[in-house]
């Protein structure tokens, strides 16, 4: 029963939220990510008004193999944001929504996984030359 | 001079342990308590203090804090009043989650690791585990937490059907400990947000059939810092020591505002 040690406090610990908090964090991150994609997308598309050559040069850069994974990430973010968005609507408007929010989150994650497995398979097949 | 005779007591009907002073029957164990301290008179920054204590299976986190304060370091500062989960004074962050120290048994926590105790988030820390609750109570006052009834007072009580009473039963349980409000990520970053506790207490009167000021309260909560700030993270429902379905109450107020304006 003796004092053992004192250490600097820093910023304290991270709040240990459960499914509800982490789904909100995921929704925020994917939302901000999609916003920045749309910003870049509007800018690169508007380049066609500047000059078709500039547009072609920028769009050509997207053919880089690394963009394949970028596109999978983008679709992953959109699919999660879409399904979780439906879950949030149900939490707010369905009377029993708040009692089943965890179940609905698991459903969102299962749907996300199924959609992404199908999309990624097709996407990679096209990239590696298959049909 | 007569000799005193010792009368033999009748045999006890209760079986007592061979050796036992009461406390011996309760299992004891060592726990490490790690408390985030802050004292502006001692240091600018916060720091962690750790103590290893011998505690019993019947002890709560509050008992461990008492042991430190009473036997080791009297400068440790925290609020507690009733110590039995009614007054709502000792809400704190135990192992990263908002809990009442007087309702959290040590044996229910993982005692193989230090038990971390911090002040609740989002309110200014004054010393150690004590925060300034004024912003919290300011929001509470703004939703008018009292019965407003414009009809003449009856000679007896204002009667209400059991169904009407049931409508807001859940939100009558609030003890204003601030565990919900200070678990809300929106409240951490936006101190202007009314927060779950104020909305719960508004719910208690909005859905009370005897109350006449529901519309005024809905108007207050229709503000941009009102119910629409809620992002349904469910931290509040998880943190409530009274088991109030806080997010559900907020959702019902949101729906009431929408249906009223339609």
Automatic annotation (TrEMBL), chain B:
Q: Name one GO molecular function term.
A: 2 iron, 2 sulfur cluster binding
Question: Domain of life of the organism in this record?
Answer: Bacteria
Transmembrane stretches in the record are none
Q: Which PROSITE patterns does the record cross-reference, listed alphabetically?
A: 2FE2S_FER_2, 4FE4S_FER_1, 4FE4S_FER_2
Pfam families found in the cross-reference section: Fer2_3, Fer4_8
Q: Which UniProt keywords apply?
A: 2Fe-2S, 3Fe-4S, 4Fe-4S, Iron, Iron-sulfur, Metal-binding, Oxidoreductase, Tricarboxylic acid cycle
Q: What is its EC number?
A: 1.3.5.1
Q: What is this protein called?
A: Fumarate reductase iron-sulfur subunit
Protein species of origin:
Nesterenkonia sedimenti
List the taxonomic lineage.
Bacteria, Bacillati, Actinomycetota, Actinomycetes, Micrococcales
